[in-house]
Amino acid sequence: MLAVGAAAAGLFTATGGSAQAQDGYSDGDYQASTKAEFVNCGGEVQLGTSLSNGSLYARGGFTLNLSSRGRECWGWLERSTDGGHTWTTISGGHHGAGVFAQTYYYYDGVGYLARVCVGDLLYDNSYSCGAGV
């Protein structure tokens, strides 16, 4: 709910729908177990490794279409440092219709979990979040 409240209040740093290349990381696989879907919006966490320090990082990848309710989809990345009990939005919100977008990489080492959330934000609860990894 925190993420949606932030998005609805315009507190996200909104970015366009284009995918962002990020130097300095070796891209890993998208984690199917982290998939989030909501009214035709979708996203997954991608793990990557820093080329400078070898640490694990995570970013969100989103397929942003028009929702089944005719609204632009939004996607963002959240982090937990307490085993998934609480979550905090760590990326800017991406939105669009008919685009693929990615967040930047964020540290995801020992003690950290990352998950993606997607939705059309029609209502405060108009989103869904995937599992943490």
TrEMBL record:
Q: Which UniProt keywords apply?
A: Signal
Q: Which residues form the signal peptide?
A: 1-21
The identity of this protein, by name, is Uncharacterized protein
Q: Which organism is it from?
A: Actinacidiphila cocklensis
